[in-house]
Amino acid sequence: MKGGKEVQHYDKFVGKEILSDEESKLRFGDQWKESGEKIKNVHEALAELYEKAGEPKKDLELEKSDRDREIIELVANATDRFLEELGRNKKVSVPLDHIHYLKEGGVKEYTHGRLGVGSHASVLGEILVDRRNDLETAITTFHELWHAKVYTALQTTIKGKFKAYREGFSIYSREGDKRWYYYLDEALAGYMTKRFFNEVLERDESFKKEIQESKKPIDTTRLRELADFSRWVHELWERNRDQFKSKDEIVKLFLDGQVNGRILPIARLVEKTYGKEKFRQFGVGF
Ligand SMILES: [Zn+2]
């Protein structure tokens, strides 16, 4: 940890934090640390990874223009405002060098076709965004920055890799091979990105032209997942009207799970509505 600076891009770490020589070798091999030292303290290792994540992505990264910085500031302020409103108890700031703007097609190239125009790496605490027009870039930046700032827990898995344990609402197994509520977590990010579009971008003069001239409907990200989520909230509302004043209250409960990590109230609600074990079962493909 250089300069004693603590990395702060995760809320919690699950698993053993100080490793023995054998465990370090088992998990990270011989030459994992640049200095050749073995990894003992996983937080130090994560800090080292985090520092490396601030380096530009070779051949793909664009130097940020003044307009890029303006867009990022607008997005960062909006995420902070929304998070405060939702009672986020930890403030995560993502430095400019961990927000990578890539040339068009860069995210796809960098992630070997795994992801489209944006990505977020919870272990590294970085986001990647394809620089397209201002509007599309702002929308993707919000979506990815949202992921980066909500509740995050990391782990070394039983198989010995650094991985997420919780990303917002979604949960990983300790083997690191299973994940529950991936699409739900995306739907929630999509929900907030839509809010960002409605409450910030649509009211901002500098985006007016691109919004008016857009030939296709504006994609505020994860619309399909958001539609599935809305249907589910509607059903939960229908079946639990005695417990909630409005559908919004249920949405807020889901957002609390994503933003602050508190998923128990939703788990209880789901089991009360559909029966025991259902919360876990539903999370498999959702
Ligand atoms: Zn996403």
Question: What does this protein structure show overall?
Answer:
By secondary structure, this protein is α/β, with parallel strands linked by helices. The chain has a domain at 2-177. It has 11 helices and 8 strands. The chain has a 5-stranded mixed sheet with strand order 1-5-6-7-8. Strands 2-4-3 form a 3-stranded mixed sheet. α3 (66-85) crosses α5 (134-149). The chain is globular, with a radius of gyration of 20 Å. The relative contact order is 0.11. It binds zinc ion.
Overall geometry comes to globular
Q: What are the distinct ligands in this entry? A: zinc ion
Query: If you average the pLDDT, what whole number results?
Result: 92
Helix content: 40-55%
Largest sheet: 5 strands, mixed
Beta-strand residue fraction = 5-15%
This entry's quaternary arrangement is single chain
Q: Any low-confidence stretches, pLDDT <50, length ≥5? A: none
Largest sheet, spatial ordering of strands: 1-5-6-7-8
**What's the number of extended β-strand segments?**
8
**How far is it from the N-terminal to the C-terminal residue, by CA?**
38 Å
Given helix and strand content, the structural type is: alpha/beta
What Rg do the Cα atoms give?
A: 20 Å
Q: Helices and strands, in N-to-C order?
A: EHHHEHEEHEEEEHHHHHH
* Count of helical stretches: 11
Brief summary of the model shown:
This protein has about 290 residues and is an alpha/beta fold.
Key terms:
binds zinc ion, 286 residues, single chain, alpha/beta, 8 strands, 11 helices
Task: Give a topology summary.
Elements: E1 12-14, H1 21-28, H2 42-53, H3 66-85, E2 99-102, H4 106-110, E3 118-121, E4 126-130, H5 134-149, E5 152-156, E6 162-167, E7 170-172, E8 179-180, H6 182-199, H7 205-213, H8 223-239, H9 247-260, H10 264-274, H11 278-282
Parallel strand pairs: 1-5, 2-4
Antiparallel strand pairs: 3-4, 5-6, 6-7, 7-8
